[in-house]
Structure formats: structure tokens, C-alpha cells
Amino acid sequence: CLSQSLRKLRTMDTKGGLGLDDELDREEITIKSKDQKSFTVTKKAARISRLIRTTIDGDSNCNEIELYHIDGDIVKRIISYMDYHEKVRPREIEKPIKTNNMADLVDAFDAKFCNVDQEVMFQLLLAANYLDIKPLLLLMCAKVASLLKGKTPPEIRKTFRIRDDYTPEEEEEVRNEYKDLLS
Fold this sequence. Notes:
Blueprint: H1 2-11, H2 20-26, E1 28-32, E2 38-42, H3 43-46, H4 50-58, E3 64-66, H5 72-87, H6 108-113, H7 118-131, H8 134-148, H9 153-159, H10 168-177, H11 179-182
Parallel strand pairs: 1-3
Antiparallel strand pairs: 1-2
């Protein structure tokens, strides 16, 4: 049976040889960014991405993946996230968010990781979505939520540089229409 053979390979370590799990731990894959920067990461760490996991599972000889939509600086950050979370399971983020302080919601690495300017924050969010890295996507969504928490609409517009397109009359109309939700 195939599963018995795999189990034997995993536990076999005669004469200092590597078992199957050890090989996967050490085997690397190259991730190439939109701007043609190359980064290496273990396949085990890269598997946190469902997109990369599916690619690796579909082609066992795959040793390079090109990410045509993601800049090198963002790929580099994501690789550091993968490397860290290969060893440390991401902390579950309590919902709804009860604080604006990310250090109260996640571990120190993740709090520092998401402490970036808005442009990088949204690029990480989009990359996490594209790569299908659920814990990173949830982290970046929590960061956005922490920036929204406790702010009025004008403060939110200012924080995210959103232009106010409503005239005072239109704004009053919306307030009246949704007064049950806004009170």
C-alpha cells in the first residue's frame, strides 16, 4: 500500500539518510516577483499559501513560481511571514476587534509585521488574497479594522484619504434613510 510505503520512508533514517519529511523541510522553491526579484523559501513554509501548495502538489518538479502581480518588496515581506509561521502558528484574532492596538490582538512578530504605511498594508492584503494565505489576509483585515475602530466617518475619510462626494443635502438624505442603523 502506498500509505505504508510513505510511512516507512518518513521513519526510515538508516545510515544518516533523510526521511521524506526531512527532505520536504529542506527542499526550497524560488518565488519570482513582478519586478523579476527572486526569493527562496522552503516548500514547507511556502505551503501556507494555498495557491503555492496547489501548484507544488500539481507539479512535484516545480522549483520556481512567478508572481506577475506582486512587487519584490511585498514578496520579501510575505516570505518572512511564511518563514516565521512555518514554526509559529498564527494566533487566532478575536472578532469583533476590541482594540486599536494590534499588539493586544496578535503576537509581537505579527504586530510589527503589519505596522506599515497604508500603501504597503493594502498591497499585503491584496497579495494575501491572491496567494490565498488566510492567516495573513485575516491579519491585514484586522489591521484595517483597527484603523477604523472608534472613528467617525469624517475621521475615516481623513485616515484613508477618501474624498467626501456627498453634498450636505445628500448626506442628510442618507442619514434619514438609515437613521435606525446610525443611532
